[in-house]
Sequence to fold (199 residues):
Amino acid sequence: MPRPGSLIPAAFYLRPVDVVARDLLGRHLCLGPVTLRITEVEAYGGPQDSASHARSGRTPRNAPMWEAGGCAYVYFCYGMHHMLNVVTGPPDRAEAVLIRSCEPVTGLDLVLERRRHVQGPALLTGPGKVAQALGVDLAFTGTRFHEPGGLELRAGSPAAAILAGPRVGVDFASPADRDRPWRFAEAGTPWVSRPRNLR
DNA sequence: CACAGGATCGTT
DNA sequence: ACGATCCTGTGT
Fold:
């Protein structure tokens, strides 16, 4: 059975992080039998962004952020959740896009099993839920989305309109970074975490 | 080596 | 509003 959409080439990721973030909406995330369509993302800048994991420079955990765009950066949070990011830009820019919400496309039976049969948008709205549904864990950090066979990004169907707002859970950042409107979601979709604060 | 805290989630 | 739960970065 062919994959839904063609594999996205490496050049896609070599643009400013907010541009790639918007362009990721509507693309397909694929792993094994599961395909998810991206509906909500957040952009994180390099060392100068006080909300980003890159703010402390290169560490063992965030090393994939310093790779060339197209790399996966996965980290473990709050002792129980995995967070999936798409690294962007040339090497050493350390920018990444957090995948916050998706809608199901294929492999729904497996997604429902992994998500304990939660009903409605609560199934996939939130970064921890997306990673759990896809089956992504730390073993995937450092892998490349444009190389076939593993965690892949494919064409999908683009978002017609996009809403933006401040990022979630970054109250610790400086005011300028806290207020930067770098959360993006497809307009009108129910597959979004915290629909408030978007316009 | 010890410790404080986190780009969250689900329940109370 | 809060507890779960453990990896991570930082400091001693």
